[in-house]
Amino acid sequence: MLKKLVGVIISLFSLSILANSPVPLEINGQKALVFINQDPPGTRCNTNVQIAAEIANAYRLPILILPQTAVPPLTPAPSVWYNGQNIAASGGAHNGMVSYQIIADILELEGTTKQKKQGKLFNDSVRPEFDKLKSTIKTAQ
Description:
The protein is α+β, with helices and mostly antiparallel strands. The chain has helices spanning 2-19, 43-58, 100-110, 127-139, and strands spanning 26-27, 30-31, 33-37, 63-67, 79-82, 85-89. Strand 1 (26-27) and strand 2 (30-31) form a beta hairpin. The protein is globular and about 40 Å long. The termini are far apart.
């Protein structure tokens, strides 16, 4: 009985921490996209950083990549936050890893400004090498 009670208290404490965003909501008046990585980062964290690069190539918004040690204790890592809302969290939604499409859909619904000219990651001469790098990281070969 005591173990269950302690478990419930810890769960409620964890939820109260996550209810108050552990990351910045805005930077310079713009909604912030924040990636929290394990320290050192693992495969899911590296994949999220690649997604952050792709998003930066297409959208104009502040993007932060923080180590877990820079956020309050019990904040899951990897996790992804936008405007203080949790999009993905280790052990929760998407198990902490996002895709370009998940983030792009949210940004489109929010009406986030796009880059006037897309960056090099979407260039046909760069994209195959970038995809090859992503594949190598995911398979750890």
